[in-house]
Write a structure and sequence with these properties.
By secondary structure, the chain is α+β, with helices and mostly antiparallel strands. It is 17% helix and 23% strand. The strands form 4 sheets. It has a 4-stranded mixed sheet. Strand 4 (75-77) and strand 5 form a beta hairpin. The longest helix has 9 residues, at 18-26.
């Protein structure tokens, strides 16, 4: 059984948000809602500045905090590690929204909680997630983390730096950031600028 995960090479990402548009189109995400968001972080004093774009989405955590709090079982984890939501069982209570340490869930206008699924319908057909195939700089990698020959495993093994966001939560996210200099850095006071958000979708 596969254990799916994703990696994003931050050094390659140009902040074009093509992945966000591809996700929205592929999954027919309603107007004003997003499954992905882009965060811009800049540190330093002009003219000595350094910045990064960081794409964020559901992290499909190994130890997903959103799963055990769901009172109806609508949020669940598949055998291959995907964290999904069954709209027909979701009551919109938002327990999972509160439990997510990454703030990556929102309520669909239909009343159920929505988020990134790693395009599970495409995976079932043997295809890559829409965000991966759309990226013009090839900064996204997806596949079986337990298969050393998969795209994601090769990318992680080849990187000089591999990080996850908020490792202290114990969630064990399966979305990895490669070659980042600013992720989890707490030595600057300026908050990151979120360039694409959920439009109050909580």
């Amino acid at each position: 059984m596969a254990r799916y995960g994703m990696a994003i090479d931050v050094a390659r990402c140009q902040g074009c948000q093509a992945c966000l548009v591809a996700c929205k189109t592929e999954n027919e995400v309603p107007l004003g809602k997003f499954r992905l968001r882009m965060r811009e972080e800049v540190v330093g004093t002009f003219p000595d500045l350094y910045g990064e774009f960081r794409m964020e989405q559901c992290f499909h955590c190994e130890n997903a905090p959103c799963v055990p709090v769901c009172p109806t079982g609508a949020t669940f984890q598949t055998d291959d590690g995907l964290v999904l939501t069954n709209p027909s069982r979701c009551t919109g209570c938002k327990a999972c929204v509160v439990a997510c340490p990454y703030d990556m869930r929102h309520v669909n206008p239909g009343g159920w909680v929505d988020k990134c699924t790693f395009c599970d319908h495409r995976i079932a057909e043997g295809r890559q997630p829409a965000c991966v195939v759309t990226c013009p700089t090839g900064s996204r990698f997806f596949g079986d983390l337990d298969n050393p020959s998969s795209d994601v495993s090769i990318a992680i093994a080849s990187a000089t730096q591999v990080d996850v966001l908020k490792p202290h939560t114990g969630a064990k996210p399966k979305l990895f950031y490669l070659e980042s200099k600013l992720i989890n850095q707490a030595d600057h006071d300026d908050p990151a600028t979120v360039l694409s958000e959920f439009a109050g979708g909580k």
